[in-house]
From TrEMBL:
Gene3D superfamilies given in the database record: Structural Genomics, Unknown Function 30-nov-00 1gh9 Mol_id
GO cellular component: cytosol
Record protein name field: MbtH-like domain-containing protein
GO biological process: one example: siderophore biosynthetic process
InterPro entries cross-referenced by the UniProt entry: MbtH-like_dom, MbtH-like_sf, MLP_fam
Domain named MbtH-like: residues: 14-60
């Protein structure tokens, strides 16, 4: 994601924020707040919940290299 669409750390600390799992055209996964517009090149996956649940889903389902 480019710097103009990156989410600031302080925007991700609200435990009540709903997130979606998003997938890039490069087959990478990330989480994105549901109230924000998804950046170009990323598509929403039909997985939603709090940030921790979305990250858990990515961990269990991503078949790419782990960082």
């Amino acid at each position: 994601m480019s710097s103009n669409t990156a989410i600031k750390d302080d925007e991700t600390k609200d435990p009540f924020t709903e997130y979606f799992v998003v997938k890039s055209i490069n087959e990478q996964y990330s989480v994105w707040p549901s109230e924000k517009e998804i950046p170009a090149g990323w598509n929403k996956i039909e997985i939603a919940g709090n940030k921790e649940n979305c990250l858990d889903w990515i961990e269990k389902n991503w078949e790419g290299p782990k960082l």
